Amino acid sequence: MEIQHSEFADLVKKHREARHWSRSELARRSGLTQAEISRLESSKRMPTIRHVRYLAQVFAKTRQQGDPKSYATWVALMVNHADDIRREVRASRRSVNK
Q1: Cβ distance 40 to 63 under 8 Å?
Q2: What is the value of pTM for the model shown?
Q3: Number of Cβ within a 10 Å radius of residue 95
Q4: Over its length of 98 residues, how does the chain's per-residue pLDDT go in tens digits?
Q5: How crowded is the C-beta side of 68, counted as CA atoms within 13 Å?
Q6: 10, 29, 75, 81: which sits with the fewest CB atoms below 10 Å from its CB?
């Protein structure tokens, strides 16, 4: 199931590009696969807590100006966007089942 374009996807892509990293570089640094990064950025995969933790950790370690200051803040930001995706998916499933 393809998820509609999400703020989570935008968040990951924005911060990856701000660091001038390729998807493979983000994958290497985060411990995720390049395919996972690609699916997350294209909204073809719902983020899990594992994705949130790994991405928050790598972005917090390589903080750029204007970024959240701590790992905990990164997690909160990413979880908020991931929750938005889950609500969107539930709503679309309800509309399909009607």
Answers
A1: no
A2: 0.75
A3: 8
A4: 444 557 888 889 999 999 999 999 999 999 999 999 999 999 888 888 889 889 999 998 888 777 777 778 877 877 777 776 667 767 777 776 76
A5: 18
A6: 10
